[in-house]
């Protein structure tokens, strides 16, 4: 699975002009499933996301996790993270999981996040979404776990 984490002061997802998910300080987590991914791999990725120390401590060092600071998670599906840009000028997306598998793994990731963390908001799988964010830092961390 692939994730792109952005530490944010605030973030929200709009669909057709309506806000469907929003958080204050925390992490925007863009998630993409690949064909060989499993729910177990998604859980491993989630645990890493929740424990990643990318928030400042009292000394200003990145030493706290989203759980430590009580931040929110805004989880958004984004198959384009699996883009293959090696040939030509149009990216290919065959490295992304098929939609049925992608949605199932995304839903499992979100369910596990809601069970493990008190503040979780989401986008909607497969929807045309507008993501608004204020990147804090800026801090942007790519993550990829493979089976």
TrEMBL record:
The keyword Hydrolase applies. It catalyses: glycyl-tRNA(Ala) + H2O = tRNA(Ala) + glycine + H(+); a D-aminoacyl-tRNA + H2O = a tRNA + a D-alpha-amino acid + H(+). Signal peptide: none annotated. GO terms for cellular component: cytoplasm. It is found in: Cytoplasm. The keyword Cytoplasm applies. This is D-aminoacyl-tRNA deacylase. It comes from Hydrogenophaga intermedia.
């Amino acid at each position: 699975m692939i994730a792109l984490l952005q530490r944010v002061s605030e973030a929200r997802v709009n669909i057709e002009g309506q806000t469907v998910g929003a958080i204050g300080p925390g992490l925007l987590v863009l998630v993409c499933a690949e064909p060989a991914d499993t729910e177990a791999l998604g859980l491993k990725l989630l645990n890493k996301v929740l424990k990643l120390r990318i928030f400042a401590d009292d000394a200003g060092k990145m030493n706290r996790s989203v759980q430590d600071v009580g931040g929110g998670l805004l989880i958004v599906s984004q198959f384009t993270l699996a883009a293959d840009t090696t040939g030509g000028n149009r990216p290919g997306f065959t490295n992304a999981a098929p939609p049925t598998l992608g949605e199932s793994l995304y839903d499992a990731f979100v369910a596990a996040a809601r069970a493990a963390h008190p503040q979780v908001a989401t986008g909607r799988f497969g929807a045309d979404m507008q993501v608004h964010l204020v990147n804090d830092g800026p801090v942007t961390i790519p993550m990829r776990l493979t089976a």
